[in-house]
Amino acid sequence: MILVLGGTSDSLLICKKLNEKELLYKVSVTTDYGKHLAQNYTNNVLLGQLDLISMKELIKKEGISLIIDATHPYAIQVSQTAILAANALQITYMRYERESLLKSIVYDKLEIVETIEEACEVAARAGTRIFLSTGSKHLEIFWKALQGKEIIARVLPTSEVLAACEKIGFHADHLIAMKGPFTTMLNEEMYKHHQIDLVITKESGSQGGFLEKIEACRKLDIPVIVIKRAGMDYPCVVYHIEDILKRLENCLS
Fold first, then answer.
1. Which domain holds residue 42?
2. Which residue in 33, 41, 79, 239 has the fewest CB atoms around it within 10 Å?
3. Number of folded domains that form the chain
4. How far is it, in rounded angstroms, from Cα 215 to Cα 183?
């Protein structure tokens, strides 16, 4: 049995590949929305956070022999837990990681930072009307650090996310509730409509529309801050989904 740690569009593509090979697997997600998406591929969906104890119990109960970690590149804690659990129970851990696109970008108004806090420090000096394309998880940090700035946040259109945003202090004028990825043209129109003078995003991959966000900034001459992925020493990393099945043959043989 395979355990897929999901929550990304990439994890769904992996599920599709596993279905094609008729391999048994379960998908672990942390949100109702993630569960809804995963159920289009399998009924074996687990909802909720897994700590080290619960993950080890799940591995033993379900006879998991392989973990495919396809979580968001910023979900470091989940990855760390999975590696510890796999090592403790002597099963295989495989990380799917989107290839970094930063080296392919040529734009003199792009600034790369290591943390959300560093992004806030730069934005406090550089922006007035700031567009956040970083997801909803850490919006409260931006909201508190950028008091006095006009912040527009693009988030998933789910009741759970919108309720959390409203609790922080975001109102309708501050939110764009849409599911991506978005084209360069659509990003441009959003930036122009809201008179954005600074964009903050995370280093995602091509599936997340990362290059389209940057290209829209370049076309409109808008500075952009990119929060770099935190580095992790994964024991096994795969950068292309088509290579996963090749690795699976070795891991499950």
1. 2-99+231-251
2. 239
3. 2
4. 10
What is the rounded CA–CA span in Å between residue 9 and residue 37?
Answer: 9
124 shares a domain with 52: no
Percent of the chain with pLDDT over 70: 97
Q: What is the pLDDT of residues 2-15, one digit of tens each?
A: 999 998 888 999 99
Q: Give the pLDDT band of residue 113 (cuts 50, 70, 90).
A: very high
The two tokens of residue 110 are 């792009």
- Note the pTM of the prediction, 2 decimals: 0.79
Q: For residues 233-248, b (16+ Cβ closer than 10 Å) or e, as one string?
A: ebeeebeebeebeebb
Q: Could you tell me if 236 and 92 are in contact, meaning their C-beta atoms sit under 8 angstroms apart?
A: yes
- The predicted structure's pLDDT at residue 45: 95
- Mean pLDDT to the nearest integer, 205-225: 90
Question: Which residues, including other chains, have CB under 8 Å from residue 229's CB and lie 6 or more apart?
Answer: 73, 74, 100, 202, 203
Q: How far apart are CA 219 and CA 202, in angstroms?
A: 19
DSSP summary character for residue 106 = -
For 76, the 3-state DSSP assignment is: helix
Strand order in the sheet with 150-155: 110-113, 224-227, 198-202, 129-133, 150-155, 175-177
CATH code (residue 82): 3.40.50.720
Looking at the structure, tell me whether residues 194 and 244 fall in a common domain. Answer: no
Are the beta carbons of 109 and 217 closer than 8 angstroms?
yes
- Same domain for 20 and 55, yes or no, is yes
